[in-house]
Each structure stands twice: as C-alpha cells, then as structure tokens.
Amino acid sequence: MALEASLAALSIAAVSAENATPLKTLVFKPKTAKTATPVPIVVLALTSTSTPSGLIASSANAKEPRLAKEEIFQEFFQTTAKEFSVANLNKENAAKVSILIDSNISESEVYEVSTESSKAALNGKDILGYLKSLEVELTTVDFSSAPAPAPASESKQAAKTKTAKDTSAHLEGAEKIGITIDKNLDFPGWYQQILTKGEMLEYYDVSGCYIMRPGSYAVWEEIQDYFNGAIKKMGVKNAYFPMFVSQRVLEKEKDHIEGFAPEVAWVTKAGSSDLEEHIAIRPTSETVMYPYYAKWIQSHRDLPLKLNQWNSVVRWEFKHPQPFLRTREFLWQEGHTAHLSFEEADAEVLQILDHYESIYHDLLAVPVVKGKKTEKEKFAGGLYTTTVEGYIPATGRGIQGATSHCLGQNFSKMFNISVESPEGADKPKLFAWQNSWGLSTRVIGVMVMIHSDNKGLVIPPRVAQTQAVVIPVGITNKTTKEQADAIYDGAKAVENQLLAAGIRAVGDYRANYSPGWKFSDWELKGTPIRLELGPKDLEAQSVTVVRRNDSAKFQVKIADLDAEIPKILDQLHDDLFNKAKESFDTHRVIVEDWKDFVPALNAKNVILSPWCGVMECEEDIKDSSAKKNDGSEEEVDEKAPSMGAKSLCIPFNQPELKEGTKCVKCGEKAINYTMFGRSY
Amino acid sequence: MALEASLAALSIAAVSAENATPLKTLVFKPKTAKTATPVPIVVLALTSTSTPSGLIASSANAKEPRLAKEEIFQEFFQTTAKEFSVANLNKENAAKVSILIDSNISESEVYEVSTESSKAALNGKDILGYLKSLEVELTTVDFSSAPAPAPASESKQAAKTKTAKDTSAHLEGAEKIGITIDKNLDFPGWYQQILTKGEMLEYYDVSGCYIMRPGSYAVWEEIQDYFNGAIKKMGVKNAYFPMFVSQRVLEKEKDHIEGFAPEVAWVTKAGSSDLEEHIAIRPTSETVMYPYYAKWIQSHRDLPLKLNQWNSVVRWEFKHPQPFLRTREFLWQEGHTAHLSFEEADAEVLQILDHYESIYHDLLAVPVVKGKKTEKEKFAGGLYTTTVEGYIPATGRGIQGATSHCLGQNFSKMFNISVESPEGADKPKLFAWQNSWGLSTRVIGVMVMIHSDNKGLVIPPRVAQTQAVVIPVGITNKTTKEQADAIYDGAKAVENQLLAAGIRAVGDYRANYSPGWKFSDWELKGTPIRLELGPKDLEAQSVTVVRRNDSAKFQVKIADLDAEIPKILDQLHDDLFNKAKESFDTHRVIVEDWKDFVPALNAKNVILSPWCGVMECEEDIKDSSAKKNDGSEEEVDEKAPSMGAKSLCIPFNQPELKEGTKCVKCGEKAINYTMFGRSY
User: Which Gene3D superfamilies has this protein been placed in (chains A, B) (predicted)?
Assistant: First the structure.
C-alpha cells in the first residue's frame, strides 16, 4: 500500500509545511538463535538523529542489532525496505516487534515521513497518537545521551549505522578523515557532520537549542572584539537589559509584536507557584528598552542616546531548526539609538552597515552585498531597513547577513520618547529619531557553509581559535631518542616563537597518534595552516607550511616565521574571500525577461532584475517562482527547494537602469534593479 | 486603633519574613473648589517606587494632588498621618476616596506595612484581597512608566514627594547635589538612590530584574577582560550552553536540584501552544553541561576539559530583591572543569580563588578574606567550597564575594564522566575530578556599598567607565570670547592628551551648566578625578586635579599629565583599598567567650571565634545570636538586622589556635578559628 493510502486508512491527515522535520524509520534485526523467531526493532527518529547500535541494543534489550535485510520487511510488514514507513505498523505486526521512539519527536512539531516513492507532512501529535493506538509498549530513547565514539573508530561506526538511503552521499575513503557525507550530495547532512565532528557545535537535549563549543564561541569573541571597538568609537555604550518582559509591556505595541507573538516563550511558573502575570522571554528588546529611553531622554541634551547589548534572545520557532541559522535561542548584539535629527540617525544606519560588511569581508572572508530591503521585507514598524546579503553556493540560496534599521519616529511616538524643542518650550516637542541594528551568531553558519569542504571545517584565520598547529613529523622506528627529542624541542620552539609573534598557535605533541591522523584531525577542525617539522626541516632550519584550504605547501625559514606567517594567513584570508566572491559574482545574474527567471533560480543563482517596487508584484514573483514555471515536470536539482524567490535587497550598487526598462514580472515601469533569490 | 489591632480586626494575619518589601501608604489632596468636598487619593506603593504627582493626577483624574495635611487624615480616617496605613481603610471611608495601587505589588510577595509606632509583615495576597473586599474601584498604576524629572529639577521634585517619615534621613542642602538620603541613617534608601541617580542601574518593570546601565556594565566589562586573560592563560576556553534545560534532565540529580527547585522559572508555553514538557531556565549549569562532558570525555587524553561561560542565570527568589545582591536574573561567569587527578583539580580551585581575590583587591579596591566554607555552607553536592568574603561597614554584615568549588567525583559518578585507566582497559575506569567556580555582578553591589558616600557613587579608577572628567572653569561675564575659547580649547587639548595616554577621559563642555553643577553631576556618577582648567591654570600651563573620594586637590603641569595622572589614579585606588581594609580589619574581632559574641555582632563586627566544626553547633550559633542574647530589650541599632550569625568561612589565614582552646559556643575542643557574621 502506498504511503498516502496507508495514511488515509489510518486517518492521519497530511498537513502542508514548507519546512517539516524529516523522520526516518529504521528496522534492525538483533542477533537471534537460529531456532528462534527474531524480534525486529523499529526505530522512529529524526533523520538528523544518529542512532548508534549500542544504544538501540540497550534500549530494546537486544543483542547486536543490525540493519534488517529485505526478508524481514517482507515477513513482518509485507512491504519492501524502500517503501516501509511508520504507516506500515498496525496492531498485529506491532505486537511482534520492539518500537523505539526518538525523544526529540514532539507532539507540537510537524514532520516529514517519506518512502522512496512519496512523502507527507504530518503533525507529531498524529504520529505519536497513532503509535499509542497500537496498544504496545513504546520506548522513548534519548539518543543525544549516547557517548560519541572515539575519534579513531568513529567514522567506521558511523558508516556501519548508516541507512541504505545515505549511501549515495557517502564519501570514498571517508573512514580515514572523519567526514563521511559529501557536501555536494547531501548538504544538510554534511553541514551537521562538520559542525559536530569539527567540534564547533553539539546538538542539545532541548530541540532547536545547540551548544556553542569553543571552536565557534572563539569566532564570536573575535567578532565581539572587533565590533565593540568600532561602535565605542562612535560613542555607543554597552548595557544590559533584562531578558524578561511582562505581557502587558510586550503587547503594548500591537503591530510590532504581531510578527513575534507566535514565537514568544512564556514563563508561567516559578518553583511550584503559578505566576499571576505571565512573563515573556524577549524575542528582541524594543519594548524592553524604549519605556526607559522615554524616561531617560528628557532634554535634547540627553540625545543622542546610543546603547548596545550582547545577549541571547528566544524565538520559539516551530519550523525545522538549523544550527546557527534557525535556533530557538541565539546570541546576538542589538544596538538601539535615539537621535535629535533624521540626518544623524540616517548616517548612523549606514555606518553600522559598513561595520557589518567589514565583519563579513575582513573577518569571515565572506562577500556580501549591501542594500535596502523592500517595503515587504523591512522591519515591521520601522522606516526603512538596510541589510548585508550573502550567498550560499552549495544551495544557490541567498541569506540575510545582518540588518541595520532606521525606525524613524514610529516607536518614539508610541513610547513618547520626546524632548522640548531646543528653540523653546512653546514650540512643538520633538520626537526622537531611532535606529536599531543587530548581528547574530548566524554569521558563523554562513561562514561554515561557504568555506568548508569534504575534509571538514575551513575557518578563516582572523577568527580561528587556533590559527596554526605545529606537528612534529618524520619520526620512525629508526629515529634515535636524541633525534626525536630534537624534533619535539624544535617544534615546541616554533610554537613558542609563533605565540610570541601574536599568532594563535598550538603544538600537537600527542605521542600515540601518527602525523597523518593529526593532519586529518586538524583539517577536520578547520585550522588555517599547519607547520610540519621533521628531520630535514630541522636540518635546513625551516618548516613546511601547509594551507588548510587548498593544501598548498611552502618552505619557510624558522628565522622568517614572524614575518612570513602573518603574510601567509592574510593571503589565505584573501584567497578564501576571492574564491567566495567569484562564486557570488558569477551566480548573481541579471535577468530582464521573466521566462529566464525560474531557470536562473534553478541554476543556483540569485537574480538582479528590473522591478516596479510594488508589493503585490513582489508577492506574485514569489508565488510564480515557487511553481515549476520553466515548463519541465522535474526539478533541475533534487535538492533545490521549490520555494519561491523573495526579494533579498535593492543593492546600493545598481546596474544602469535604462530609460523605459520594464519590470521583470508585471511589465510596468521598473524603478530599480532588485536582488531576488531563494533564501534561508 | 493601633496597626496590630486593625489588622486583627480585618483578619489579615501577620507573617514572619526576614526581608519583607516595605510599602508606603500616601494620601494626597487634589486641588478642589472651596465649596466642594475633596476626594483624597490614597496611594499604596512600594517604598522604593517614586510616585510623581503628575502621574497620580492623571491616574486619579484629579488636579494638582499634594500630600495631604493632618486634617484630611482626621476627617476621613479618624487617625493621624503618622499612624495611618492601609489597615485604616474600610468600606465606608474607601467610598469617599480614590485608591491607586502600585503595579509592582504582587500577590506572591511579602510586604512590610508600617506606621510610626509599629509594623507588620503581610502577604501581598491578603493585602490585595482586603482592598478588593472594600468593593470600590481600585486603579493599578505603573509608576515605572513615569518620565523621570530632568536633572536640574529632580531633587526638588523628589523632596516634595517625600513622606514625613523620610525627613530623618534627609540630607541638609541635598537639593543641590542630588542625593537626599544619608548613608548612615537609611542605608537601603541611600543605596537605591545612588545607583539610580548615579545612572548605574534602573529599576525595571518585572520585579527583581534591573537594567544595568553603561556605568555598571563598564565595570563588568573590565572584570571580564581581566578574568578572561587570567583563565585563558590556564587553558580555560569560553563556550556557550543553552539557557534552557528540560525538566527530565534538570531533575536527574535530585540532591543538587533540591536547593534550586523552589526558584526555578518554567517555560510552559510558546506562542499560544502549551509545551508538552516544561522547560526550565537554568539556575546554574551543572545539569546542562555534564551530560555533554560525559559524551566528550572518552579517554584520559580528553582531560583536562576546562570550559567557562559568561551568561545570565535565573533564580526566581521570593525574598525582597536588592540590586546586584539578590536579583532574579543576574550575569555571571561559571567555569566547569574536569581533571584526571584530585591534585590537579585541587590546585585549580585555589588558582581561581586567587583570581577572584585579585578582582576584588586590584580592580574593585575591596578587601576580602579567603577561606573555606563549613560543611553546612558548602555547595550542595560538592566536595568542598572555597570563598572570598567581604564586609559592608555600613551594616556590619559579611558578604560572600565569589566561590570556587571542588566537586570531587560526585557529579562525575552521577553523569558517568569517566575514562579508561591509562594503565589499561582491565583496570577500573576512572571518574573525573571536577571543579566549578563562579563570580557574579553581585561584585558591583559590594563595590558600591563600600566606597560610595553621601555625594553619590565612588567608582575605583580601574573599573570606572570614565576615569577623569575635564571641566573648563572660571568663565564669567567679564571673560572675553578669546579667553573663553582659549579655555575650552585648552580643556579639549587636555582631554585628547589623556585619551592618547590611555586614560578614559571625557570633557564636559555643556554650555548651560555651571562648573559647580557639573562637579556635583560627576561626583554623583563617581568619576575618580576631575581636572579643572581655568584662566590661571591656563596661564601656569597646569590643571587642578580633584579626587572624588576625598576632594584632595593637586596642581599638575600639563606637560606632566601623562606620567602623573596614572600615578594619581593608582594612589586613589590604593587609598580606597586601604580605607576599606582598615575598616574590615578593625571590625573583624576575635571573640573567645560566647557572652561577647552577640554584643560584638551588634557593634557591626564580623567575628573570628574558635569553633568545634560541628554542624549542630553552627546552627545553635545562628539561632542563639538571632535572639537578643545581650540581655537588652532594645536593639543597639534600629537598622541592625536581628538575624543570626552564619559562618562566613574558615579563613586560610588563621590566628594561632592554642592547645586546649574551647569552641566559643559548645565548649568542646575547637579545631580552628571560623569567621561568623550577619550576612547578605
């Protein structure tokens, strides 16, 4: 029975969801005496959950479970492995198997259940409700509590527990290097794997939340240092406002909160007491801050007021979470300033945007395009929004990098942030002109997606926790103790020399790992360069420097390291940036005719098109590009999302708009070139 | 009718509460036509809430309300102004007045209602319930939304709205300088006033939460810089773990969570959906982190693991909140490390404690005593706790400064943080030795309470947002424009010179304020030194430097500023430290006989006594010192809390314990000198 038919039979209604979380249904056969009938184990888990066989064994109280072969599917479920899903369970066969359920599956989310031939989005509530209706024991398993396999054995382990479905994206020889998923074939799987194996991030027990390990937090600290320096020069001061906001205050400004309301997390209990008034966790701090701006700003001499805070905000999204890009709690900075004049506010918006551009270009080696958001995409309640927009080559999607908003006087009028006119109390009072601007840990995800590869992370040198690793090499059975000591001492001396020169260097002197293993380990973590020191290097008083991004090698005299290593790191930065820029530049195409629009999108481009500036036309572009308007029935790329194109920004840097140019969609007069794309 | 009798008549039961939040009941008379009967306005508010008459007028829809005179109290309530409280309201008189209630008053808190002759602690629920039973309209007012009066007029305004009760602590001539409450007479009122008027902190709409304004956040940033530098040298890395923890995981370790459970804030809703599992906001991160430590630590080569995070934690205490000292959300750092051996963990505990001492001594100019906590006071679930303990001279109370815990193997055994023995897989596995250590924004409160005075804040120079303010002086009606310009230019040049020398300097060139007003303004904010530049200074090419802490003046040649200002700031730091140290030293007295114990406490001392080390004896000391064991019926100092003395620590630096010394309380053999005191 096909999936749809099975679901219909079970009265499970399919729902529509752009971003349902994919589920997998795996079947394992435990080791069973030949004379006995096996009790297969059915595991229902998020596709992103790794399900080590050890944990399956202990949870199902079974021996050595292995992925079941075709016969098991036929015998127990009367279907094929390819067409099997949770919908094939019924009271009869469920009584003959063990059922394990991933604890990450919750009633409140939407999931995608798929077989090879079809798929459906279903409410978690319906799935779990159906399983309960089977009247058999269900075991919920917290797979995240499983100990990670040790480095040496982990890739084999991972390879063993892969489902057949993953094989297509499986890297040849991957066992040696840790990363087993090909960036080009399974981008989401690859992304998750390099983040976790590269020790940037750990999946967490609460869905949508992640642990930022030192490898990613160090990137954030470099960004903080840079940005603090830049804004303090502008007279911005750091402060800290509470994470809580009362329901009454949060809901004061209806229009603004409307967009956030479905995602607000509410504290309703403390200890065992119910709170009389529910307290929200800030999704952003406009309503937290502005009542106090109104209090503090009494005279034009209190302006400008420029505050920034580094904090976490919570947006309890029900869409499929993605590390760094869509998380329920995330770190960011939010600046909120108030000015006496529009001109001053207006100028600051662009100064901040320049700093954001600089974080991308000069720290993360990621090219971005500066521009203004359309009316449809601007910050709700603001006057206008400026943005830096990036591009992810692997998916051909645009991504918003950071935004700097001019709020105009909308908020100051709502919150009464006003001063007497400097010209006298008899003149009308003046409402402040306000800005707000924010950049989040999303930047780290963008950086990783763009530079990293099938060997692991590639971290640009200026934000890398470790910029250079020193590894002793060339020690064999024939090496004498004196020679070995000399190599280790030499490596240690090189490490110290680099540290003294201000390079974030580490020496890897672990005795029981081979140099090759160490190379892979540091490549996995994305360390920009490694310095190898062996007998010949020592003799020549030089080291071999190898770049992470392209394996280019250089011999550098030890005496020249202080001068050369910073140059090599800068060159590496520039090369990463230029490579990414070339990719963005070649995939940012000008499209004048609508017939070329969707094919260009499908070819992983973002698009610059002449546009009329009308909101309805923008919505039409999104709707029309979501369908397969190129006439073909099949998508060009299986992984390309079928979502429509949104406007990303109206770039400041505009192609020349010739007299009489028509809007790409509606044919009315075009007013500018706007950048459109599928996006995150 | 006396307060107690009134309450009894109303069936409002008094409750016991160490730290009930004080309430005030104010009565206002609006402007009323002479022929009409006035409708007085009764305002029930937190004593800490400022209740501007403008807001009272608009809330009660009345004209120009003024504090009511004696006749109104007699006419409407048949009592005196001094004896009036909420308990004097009844259905009859309530119908003749307007009643405004501070929105900060909540059902779940305990309040102190007082008249001149008596006071009682009552449940908010009972108070609000009683008011509702009056069957009249009650208007709830959010006084925090009121605009603050502008600086020039604010002290007068504040003075006007003061109740008679405040007069005793009222500073003479205070209108000129902003602070109107005497540190020695009303310490809590003074503390609140210097924090808010000094622009360190703002009271927030959600009770127990406060806004850290740049003046206090800058202190925190200096501490972060120092501490990051210190721990990174030790190999500690920063990371960020989520603020949420699932109920299941939080409650995994019952003993540990027991102490936190009543204070845990629970998220139960997102948008309009009820969450299936309630999610806690971390009160501390042991249970957040350690499941992942178990995952990451697989081999002895993964040890030591040393992570730290800068974050906020939430403890929803129902006791009276106090800025920085007891807040529902607070910022801190929490370090969590795991080691292979006890020796390594043990050594780190003390290294960290040294860094904490250094933050107090070298940054905040606050003396602390290092020591070990008793078994009763140590961190629940840990092996032992070390601490730095401070002393607040104004109240004679001790205060815990920061703690560094050795957790032993208790948590590692619960969370299975273990490795194979380096001696072989056949040997028993080894559980990690763990530490955790934390320092919070409480340090800022301690610093403020110790150094500041009746002119406002005194901020030690190494953590001051602004270290030096440059103020042009001596410009009169007779000054020519050229002379004035020369003075302003000279001041600006001095400011730039200081900035170039790395001093955090600001020039105050506001034209419409007098130098005297500016002096007071910067004194209020606690800026360590001001530099005055007038015509004579300019002629002599020197500036007048005035120290905030003691008004000491120096003439410094402009050419010598780069060298002299750092010296002056360092000397100021040392003087602040030495003054505080002298106070701590002279109020840390050795008491050998129990009869001297409570009198010494009442004389605002902390006490070093020989002690037996038995937990029951410690509890006995607390109980016995809470009563008036000195035989007198009256407290020595009205403000001295009647709470019992807790053990603060067993100082590392011990007086010589002579053979045969007996415990100060129980008379058994003493094992050390322990420091006891009333405390925060």
Answer: Anticodon-binding domain, Bira Bifunctional Protein, Domain 2, C-terminal domain of ProRS, YbaK/aminoacyl-tRNA synthetase-associated domain
Contact status, residue A344 vs residue A433, Cβ threshold 8 Å: yes
Q: Which of B531, B556, B536, B543 is nearest to B479 (CA)?
A: B536
Cβ neighbour number for residue A268 with a 10 Å cutoff: 17
Pairwise CB contact (< 8 Å): A331 & B240: yes
Q: A209: burial class by Cβ within 10 Å (0-12, 13-18, 19+)?
A: buried
| Interface contacts (A, B; CB < 8 Å) | 187
The answer to whether B204 touches A242, Cβ cutoff 8 Å, is yes
Distances (CA, A) of B476 to B485, B492, B494, B511: 13, 19, 21, 12
Joined together, the tokens standing for residue B672 give 């050390």
Residue A60 confidence (pLDDT) above 60: yes
Q: Give the CA distances from residue A314 to residues A275, A286, A614, B281, B310, in Å, rounded to whole numbers and listed in that order.
A: 20, 14, 33, 12, 17
Report the distance separating Cα B638 and Cα A393, nearest Å: 72
d(CA B104, CA B119): 20
Q: What are A32-52's pLDDT values in tens digits?
A: 877 778 889 999 998 888 888
| H or E stretch at A484 | helix A481-500
**What is the distance between the alpha carbons of residues B166 and A9, in angstroms, rounded to a whole number?**
77
- The Cα of B614 is separated from the nearest Cα of chain A by a number of Å equal to 32
Q: Which residue in A has a C-alpha nearest to residue B329's C-alpha?
A: A242
Ramachandran angles phi, psi of B35, nearest 5°:
-80, -15
% of chain A exceeding 90 in pLDDT = 66
pTM: 0.78
The interface predicted TM-score of the complex, written ipTM, equals: 0.77
pLDDT of B175 above 50: no
Selected for mutation to probe chain A from B269, B313, B331 (highest A CB count within 10 Å) is B269
State the DSSP H helix or E strand holding residue A418, giving kind and residue range, or none if neither.
strand A418-419
Residue B70 above 80 pLDDT?
A: yes
Asked if residue B474 lies in contact with residue B539, where contact means CB atoms within 8 angstroms, the answer is no
Q: Which residues on A lie below 8 Å from B465 (Cβ)?
A: 237
CB contact under 8 A, B211 and A292: yes
